[in-house]
Amino acid sequence: MDSKDLGIKDGFAKTRSHGRIHYRELGRGDPLILMHTNGGSAYQHDPVAPLLAGRFRMISWTMPGHGDSDPLARHYSIEDHAAVLAEFMDALDIRRAHVGGSSVGGSITAAFASQYADRTLSAMLIETPCRTFDEWGARWGHTEGNFGLPTQNEDQVKERVANVDAALLQRWNIDRNKAGAKAMVGVMWAIREFDVKTAASKVKRPAVILYGKRGPTIADQERFRAVAPNIPIRYFENSGHFPMYDEPAVFAKVVTEFCTQQTQPA
């Protein structure tokens, strides 16, 4: 899908502590902010933006140190990213929003919803890992192999995404190279050091945990059930770690139904 044909607005929001944050926006309605995976960018949600724009002011950000957002001057924790998200909303004059993210975006969502409940309409943790520091360490070689070498070939991407065409592969490698190995591995350190279980347990706003049944994080679901039993878990039947690519129509339907339920009058 050619993003130039979608009518999506490209923009920059000037934050106090980080500088410029790149975002892409389409539609009107309640604000919905979606956050991409490590090594991605705001372009990651182009496949679902037109499907969500009929109901929401659909905004996809590019996290600090990635894409066209300003580079990092230091290591950012997950909590730091959540603070930048609050500033990003200030810059766009958004008081409250539906917030969701995939992988690291889900970790940022958990941190944001637990720390900024008054600014969260609802929270969606998508394909969000829930592992201990030592469990991450036991497979750190795999992690560094994935994110320490930005450019990936088609076969490598097909291990993670169901349908890979030339445009997706190009976008994938553009985004990973814009971020670079240092920033991507730094994100993995942030995830490794983040106490996602405590953050999830403190989320008091309406929330949902979403897994691709073919994804790598579904094995962690019982950990979330144990610490956040009031947060329901739902599944994308035919998705892996990237449901916005694998099942865009289903992704949009699930997000729309969940967010709409939270804003309907009692």
- Assign the CATH class: Alpha Beta
CATH homologous superfamily title: Alpha/Beta hydrolase fold, catalytic domain
Strand order of the largest sheet: 1-2-4-3-5-6-7-8
For this structure, the CATH topology is Rossmann fold
- Helical amount: 40-55%
Are there runs of 5+ residues with pLDDT below 50, and where?
A: none
Task: Tell me the number of strands.
Answer: 8
What does this structure look like?
- The protein is α/β, with parallel strands linked by helices.
- The protein has a single domain (3-261), classed as Rossmann fold (3-Layer(aba) Sandwich).
- It has helices spanning 49-52, 78-91, 104-115, 133-138, 140-147, 154-158, 166-193, 196-201, 221-227, 243-246, 248-263; strands at residues 9-15, 19-26, 30-35, 56-61, 97-102, 120-126, 207-212, 233-236.
- It has an 8-stranded mixed β-sheet.
- α3 (104-115) links the parallel β5 (97-102) and β6 (120-126).
- α2 packs across α3 (104-115).
- It is globular.
- It starts with 8 loop residues before the first strand and ends with a helix.
Topology of this structure?
Elements: E1 9-15, E2 19-26, E3 30-35, H1 49-52, E4 56-61, H2 78-91, E5 97-102, H3 104-115, E6 120-126, H4 133-138, H5 140-147, H6 154-158, H7 166-193, H8 196-201, E7 207-212, H9 221-227, E8 233-236, H10 243-246, H11 248-263
Parallel strand pairs: 3-4, 3-5, 5-6, 6-7, 7-8
Antiparallel strand pairs: 1-2, 2-4
